[in-house]
């Protein structure tokens, strides 16, 4: 195999993992702004923001771990010739 082909295969196999951190960060930031807006609307500063950041973090981590587990299972099946 050529070096370019090996590099391409390596990048293709790691690409799904590279976006996981970005997805987690975006989830937390979005929930931060939702909580901030809700605090301004209801006058409850900073409690709804704190709760929404916590919810976004937990939800993002659950999605993160589920994706990692699914990708690991898929990779394991491909290694053993299962589809």
Description:
With 83 residues, the protein is mainly α. The chain has one domain (18-79). It is built from 3 helices and no strands. It has helices spanning 3-18, 20-42, 47-79. Helix 2 runs antiparallel to helix 3. The longest helix has 33 residues, at 47-79. The two termini are 23 Å apart. The model has no long low-confidence stretch (mean pLDDT 90).
The sequence of SSEs as H and E is HHH
Strand tally? 0
User: Overall pLDDT, averaged?
Assistant: 90
How large is the count of helical segments? Answer: 3
Helix content: over 70%
Radius of gyration: 19 Å
Please name the defining characteristics of this protein.
elongated; 83 residues; mainly alpha; 0% strand
How would you sum up this structure in a few lines?
This protein is mostly helical. 87% of the residues lie in helices and 0% in strands. The protein starts with a helix and ends with a helix.
């Amino acid at each position: 195999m050529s070096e370019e082909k090996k590099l391409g295969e390596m990048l293709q196999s790691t690409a799904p993992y590279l976006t996981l951190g970005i997805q987690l960060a975006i989830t937390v930031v979005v929930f931060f702004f939702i909580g901030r807006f809700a605090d301004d609307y209801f006058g409850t500063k900073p409690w709804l923001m704190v709760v929404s950041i916590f919810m976004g973090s937990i939800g993002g981590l659950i999605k993160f771990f589920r994706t990692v587990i699914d990708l690991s299972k898929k990779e394991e099946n491909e290694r053993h010739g299962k589809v």
